[in-house]
Design a protein that fits this description.
It contains one helix and no strands. Helices cover 36% and strands 0% of the residues. With 70 residues, it is mostly helical.
Length: 70
């Protein structure tokens, strides 16, 4: 195969690739975020429930007398 045929095939490939990318860019548009929440997935018991996401209670120091002391 001559070098001119290889260059012609390469040029046709590049043009086809760019046309395909242009076609795909117009077709695939990401969904816009409307700021809402999605429903919980999985367990239907939790549908509509509010899950507590507050901070856990703060751990406190524990002081006790040792064994054997009155």
């Amino acid at each position: 195969m001559s070098i001119l045929k290889l260059l012609a095939i390469g040029a046709v490939g590049v043009v086809a690739w760019r046309a395909w990318q242009h076609h795909q860019a117009g077709r695939l548009r990401p969904l816009e975020d409307d700021g809402g929440r999605t429903a919980p997935h999985g367990d239907p018991i939790l549908a509509g429930e509010r899950i507590d996401v507050s901070a856990p209670p703060r751990a406190a120091a524990h002081s006790s007398r040792g064994f054997g002391e009155a």
